[in-house]
Design brief:
Transcription Regulation, Sacy, Chain A; about 280 residues; elongated; 5 strands; about 60% helix; alpha+beta; PTS-regulatory domain, PRD
Length: about 280
């Protein structure tokens, strides 16, 4: 296949083309849509990025979205997605093209109107998803360099969640719900133990990581086993912490609508012991 037929030009850098095997595909390339008309053929070597939006609803969404977005931004977002793809070395869910374009274009409009949205999960996002956070930092820098718009630190956290969503094939709403759940679990821990966890401490970082992986195990129905008699020992030695861990796993069950294996209570008790005041 040496060329693609143009089905629709969305702007100078994005066209919808007809692919012999995949039907309609989205084709991105610098200036690829310039002076093109429906029925024209474009050489395959001028294509920078091609993706297939199999979902007809998503394809329609993208067709409507692109003409409303600054062409420069389309270029920048394409560069961001290519960078994320190379750095993560993982296949990205193609929905990221719609999700990131929509999210960033809206964030820019808000910035131009001086509307600031605080990100309550910023620290947790940085701790739980370090790679995604680093990639989002690159995205924010690139937008600033190429478009002269600084979207700020709060936005790094939001973009990191979108990147995580694309890398894990999770809906962005689910990713946000998990971040909210972790944040709520931490609040309960602090209230019950009557402490304020130092956000920069290693123990806090370990606790967040443990909660993240516990949620991921529950989400995937992954069973964890525990050494014999560990549960009895922890119940006896640290009854309050064990009860708190049980309460936290019940919160997880309720919010994730999935069962939590008993062993999770024991492992969470050990993590709570790390952060609890030593008189507990």
């Amino acid at each position: 296949m040496s060329s693609l037929e143009v089905a629709k030009v969305l702007n100078n850098n994005v066209i919808i083309a007809r692919h012999p095997e995949n039907g309609e595909v989205v084709v991105i390339g610098k200036g690829i849509g310039f002076n093109r008309k429906t029925g024209h053929y474009i050489p395959i070597q001028s294509v920078e990025k091609m993706f297939i939006l199999k979902n007809a609803h998503e394809q329609e969404q993208y067709k409507q979205l692109v003409p409303q977005v600054d062409e420069k931004l389309i270029e920048v977002i394409n560069e961001i997605i290519l960078y994320v793809s190379k750095r993560s070395n993982e296949p990205l869910n193609e929905h990221i093209h719609i999700a990131l374009t929509d999210h960033i274009s809206f964030a820019i409009k808000r910035a131009e109107q001086n509307i600031i949205i605080h990100n309550p999960f910023l620290f947790e996002t940085k701790e739980i998803y370090p790679l995604e956070y680093e990639l989002a930092e690159f995205a924010i820098r690139l937008i600033d360099d190429k478009m002269g718009i600084d979207l700020g630190e709060d936005e790094i956290g939001f973009i990191a969640l979108h990147i995580h969503s694309a890398l894990t094939n999770q809906e962005i709403t689910e990713v946000k719900q998990h971040s909210q759940l972790i944040s709520d679990l931490v609040v309960v821990i602090e209230q019950q133990l009557q402490i304020k966890l130092a956000r920069s401490s290693l123990d806090y970082s370990r606790l967040l990581t443990h909660l993240r992986f516990a949620i991921e195990r529950v989400r995937q129905g992954e069973k964890v086993s525990e050494p014999d008699k560990l549960e009895d020992l922890l119940k006896q030695e640290y009854p309050e912490l064990y009860f708190l861990a049980w309460k936290l796993t019940k919160m997880m069950e309720q919010r994730l609508r999935k069962p939590v294996y008993q062993a999770e209570v024991s492992y969470l008790t050990m993590h709570l012991h790390r952060v609890a005041p030593k008189h507990s």
